[in-house]
Amino acid sequence: MNFIVLDMEWNQPWPGSPSSKKTLPTPIRGEIIQLGAVRVADGQEAAEEFQVMVRPKFYRRLNKRVSKLTGIKEAQLKEAGIPFPEAMERFRAWCGEDPIFLTWGFDDIMILRENLRLFRLPEDWTEKWFNVQMIFNAQTDGSTAQKALKTAMEMFGIESTRPAHDALGDAYHTAQICARLDLQRGMAEYGKALKSHEDGFHGAELPGCIARKVYYGYAGKEAALAAMAGAENRCPVCQRQMLGSRWFAQPGHRYMDLATCPEHGKFLIRVRLSLQPDATIRVSRLTYEAGSQAAEAYAHRAEKAQPESVKMRSRRRSRRRTEKTVE
Length: 327
Ligand SMILES: [Zn+2]
Description:
Blueprint: E1 2-11, E2 31-40, E3 49-53, H1 64-70, H2 74-80, H3 84-95, E4 99-103, H4 107-118, E5 129-131, H5 132-139, H6 149-155, H7 167-179, H8 183-188, H9 190-203, E6 209-218, H10 221-229, E7 248-250, E8 254-261, E9 265-275, E10 281-289, H11 293-303, H12 310-314
Parallel strand pairs: 1-4, 4-5
Antiparallel strand pairs: 1-2, 2-3, 6-10, 7-8, 8-9, 9-10
Zinc ion is lined by residues 235, 237-238, 240, 261, 263-264.
């Protein structure tokens, strides 16, 4: 089996910048600027390595958050980066026949495909891939939560020997995790693992949840919550913008708010924020019926609320990085 552990870093336009207003032929969540890969054999330590820097074509200005997170400088990309089509040609040649990609999380393959599509390059060679997180969970604690790479490394007692948020560094550490997993079995049982993950997402929600949607690309917590209380605060029945009341912070970067549609009444909104590898915020949003238990919990919380609002908390600017945590 030709297993290739893949990790990438990607750039995004700064919100509000001219680049952010560009309409691309096909949408991308980020433009790939660095790709790292490690070939692994089942049950063996990492072997061959591959890495390439890509000079961005569409979002040429390097987002300062991305730069800070990855340590990559714009000048470096200009100097050492090669055009994406050339990088892909090299990478495919290195991958060889029938690669099976292993990634930490669901995002990398999706972003890779978006970039290939944008450059009108074939995508079919990325068809076989597995999210190692799912295999890791199935073969360790059986949880359905997606863990940060760092957490998984700690669970396996793997020392960090390479830089984090560096494509090859992350790929290398992921490969070390792969070496401690039964990949063949993981692949055979992947469907089951994926199913329990999906069920986990829904099953873990309280009854009365009527809608679920994921949003990407917010610059920070404030922007994400503002969008969730504003433009994206849509009535699940008529899609009109609803009025929010007040966000209550809950553990795990979660917030809840009671929203009102003038026609369809109240709905409880629960959101969970997670920091993406490119330093933007992803929001998972759940909408509950007003009569649900979850909504009653909100009412109870609102009743005895202390004056500790989200705004006050956010002033502390304790932006803790949750590395590669998707959910
Ligand atoms: Zn409505």
